[in-house]
Specification:
Length: 326
């Protein structure tokens, strides 16, 4: 009798295990479940573009901010002084251009005068050489006229050289003005960057800086959790990949509001993953092991969560569970 009961119990257990296996294998044809999921959105780490002491920190921890809202301000005085100095250089460069252009006008007049003197000297030389043929002018006077023509030619060459130098100087002064204008533009840009603003709508993560701290260019001083792209990232078993498609319905719950189901849709399926944690590249890595079991390969699936962010306050990194219908 005992042997009969034992055989039936063993058979019942084996039958139950086999039935459970068949039910599971059948179910994966219709839906995929993942408990390895979390709520996600963009986190923007905000770093200043200029360095300096923080004159004030406008926001506090967990404060809601709009896109373009000021988070903090760096002391503006040094940058305002740099702008004033750059403006003075632009003004000085413009004055130097004016003086260089005046020098061009002066050198042009000198060239005209020297050319007139040369023309006159050459006419005198021509007449004197004609008179020397008839003996109406002495050789000494002829030499003097010729010398005057040579001197006039040299004066013209000198005047033309000075005019060329003046023209080159104007070019140099204009280059200096362009450089000064660029320095001014940079100074104005840096002054504008003393106000550190949020690029997106969201909430400020806990701050680690206070008024008076020194902000270093390129070093993050605040993080904003964006409200623009809330979604769920679920690690889904690779056996489901052939049946996963964007737009499929998803039933999910989130850890911050357990036991209340919500509907979403599959946004995208990762086309690849990294095979090891140290692998270089942009592909995501999904760990295979837990504390007690090695898991199959899983691929990140992004899930849109509809209007849930407008109805409830969400928390980046909160756990989620998803059921995807094929």
């Amino acid at each position: 009798m005992l042997s009969f009961v034992e055989r039936h119990v063993v058979a019942s257990i084996l039958g139950a295990v086999l039935l459970a296996f068949l039910v599971y294998e059948t179910s994966v044809r219709f839906f995929a479940y993942s408990g390895d999921a979390y709520v996600a959105t963009d986190v923007i780490f905000i770093a200043p573009e200029v360095s300096g002491p923080l004159a004030k920190v406008v926001v506090g921890d967990d404060a809601p901010v709009a896109a373009g809202a000021v988070l903090a301000e760096i002391e503006r005085e040094p940058f305002a002084l740099a702008v004033a100095a750059a403006e003075a250089q632009v003004t000085l460069a413009a004055e130097r251009i004016r003086l260089a252009e005046a020098a061009i006008d002066e050198s042009t007049a000198m060239v005209s005068a020297a050319r007139a003197s040369l023309d006159n000297a050459r006419r005198q030389q021509t007449r004197s050489e004609s008179l020397s043929q008839t003996g109406d002018i002495s050789a000494e006077a002829l030499d003097m006229v010729r010398r005057d023509a040579v001197v006039a030619a040299a004066d013209l060459q000198k005047a033309e050289s000075l005019a060329a130098v003046a023209q080159t100087l104007v070019t140099v002064r204009r280059a200096e003005q362009a450089t000064a204008a660029q320095v001014l533009a940079k100074a104005n840009y840096e002054l504008s960057r003393t106000r550190i603003m949020s690029p997106v709508k969201g909430r400020v993560a806990p701050l680690t800086v206070r008024t008076g701290d020194y902000a270093t260019a390129g070093k993050p001083l605040a993080a904003v959790v964006s409200d623009l792209d809330w979604h769920i990232v679920a690690a889904v078993d690779e056996r489901h990949l052939a049946r996963l498609k964007p737009g499929q319905s998803v039933l999910f719950t989130i850890g911050s509001d357990p036991w209340r189901p919500h509907w979403g849709t599959v946004r995208s399926i990762s086309p690849g993953i990294a095979r090891s944690a140290g692998e270089d590249g942009a592909l995501p890595y999904v760990p295979l092991s837990t504390d007690w079991i090695r898991l199959p390969r899983r691929f990140p699936v992004l899930i849109d969560i509809g209007d849930l962010p407008a109805r409830e306050r969400l928390y980046r990194g909160a756990d989620a569970r998803v059921l995807i219908w094929f």
